[in-house]
Design a protein that fits this description.
- The protein is an all-beta fold.
- 3% of the residues lie in helices and 30% in strands.
- It has a five-stranded antiparallel β-sheet with strand order 1-2-3-4-5, with no helix packed on it. Strands 7-8-9-10-16 form a five-stranded antiparallel β-sheet, with no helix packed on it. It has a four-stranded antiparallel β-sheet with strand order 6-11-15-14, with no helix packed on it.
- It is elongated, with a radius of gyration of 26 Å.
- Bound molecules: 2-acetamido-2-deoxy-beta-D-glucopyranose (3 copies).
- The site of one 2-acetamido-2-deoxy-beta-D-glucopyranose (NAG) has 3 residues, from loops.
Length: 423
Amino acid sequence: MKFLCSSLAFLALLPHAFAAFWSDDVRLKHGRGLWAGLVTTINTNNGDITSLVFNGKQLQDSSKFTQLSSGLGSASVSSSVANNVAKITITTSTIVNGTPISLGVNTIYIGTSITAEPDVGELRLIARLSKSALPNGTAIEGSDVFLINGQTRSKFYSSVPFIRDQVHGGPFFRDINNQGSAQQELYWYMNSNHEQTETYRTGFFGPYALAITSGGAPSASLNTTFMDSLGLRGYVAASAVYNFCAGSYSGTLSGTAVTIGFKNSAAQYWVAASGSSINLSSSLSVPSVIWRIAGFLNADKIESMHPVLYISGCLDDSLFRSDTRMSKWGAASSFPMAQFKAVNNPTTIKWTASSSQIGARTLRIRTTEAFAGGRPQITVNSFTSSAPAAPPAVDSRGVTRGTWRGLNQVCKWFWCQSLVLFR
Ligand SMILES: *[C@@H]1O[C@H](CO)[C@@H](O)[C@H](O)[C@H]1NC(C)=O
Ligand SMILES: *[C@@H]1O[C@H](CO)[C@@H](O)[C@H](O)[C@H]1NC(C)=O
Ligand SMILES: *[C@@H]1O[C@H](CO)[C@@H](O)[C@H](O)[C@H]1NC(C)=O
């Protein structure tokens, strides 16, 4: 009894974060006190997180673990503790995954650095948590869109960009997010071939984090400054960035959120333009217009709901259903953000030209993505254009999994008063 008491006293004096090696794993204690907080166990043979005990409750699934890709197979794993920060480094020939754990914080911070795309063809971390410990999320199913009381659930939603949702985001869209199957799965996608428009980049991805709470939403602004001094491969601390852009922008539509992106083959950056300013010039024309359409029906919902559900495989329009929170596509009061051949095609715009507007004119239709060769074709009064060539194909689903970003295209038709059109 005396011995037990002194053991407890000894443990209570340990730093809040400490690492202890067991036979083939390293165990990290995040919280204060003996049983409080999170205790994380990492397999030193492959870097899998095999146990996440929070306030005495096991959150990790026991058959499938929390890991990069679908597990690294084998990896070299080292750990160190300094200044109440434990740093676990998981290394393969192409991957270095740093998982720092800060004092007294029930959060696993992660930074992933790669020199080659993983064999699974996408870069992702999957937490496979215990379904019995974390039962919520059963409505979000795996394969892969489900209807619950008229609303849709999918592992793909939402696609809200990271710059608008720091808790659940990817840079421009979030890929697979979470699903409850045999495990409760959470995903952090760094890249994938879903609606892929650019070549994969390598280098550092992150920081990102798995934050465990007692039920409250985790903070939307996790403080990752402590990672600045850890020497993670490829990590650049904000304090080490000397070159900033400043200036102004113009030529954008008023009332529309502006995102400015910078990219080359090595990196990409983006900024929500409101309130900041950057001098940019573009080779894109901003033509003066007689009219243009802006503000598209359901555009505000597409990133988090399903636009079209095939009920009983039937293509009858009356049986097409969207998430009930969306406006009906067919009876559109404003131009729909997506056109589906079997649902809302054609869409008719009625416009009466004033005498001064009649003359040689150009109609441009710009699209951000197309699927299965979908492309615009126009009819003006009695004239019907030929169909333009099929747009370049983008792999995998787009609008039906919550993203609209693809390979931007423009179709142009010119006509003069006699309505002879050509493109
Ligand atoms: C989680 O599940 C419990 C038990 O079924 C339920 O009472 C609670 O409302 C759920 N919470 C959320 C956020 O869905
Ligand atoms: C973030 O953490 C650092 C120490 O790692 C601290 O110096 C800084 O004040 C913190 N920032 C905020 C906003 O809390
Ligand atoms: C941006 O343009 C404005 C107006 O031409 C100019 O005054 C300012 O110096 C420019 N800023 C940069 C960073 O070039």
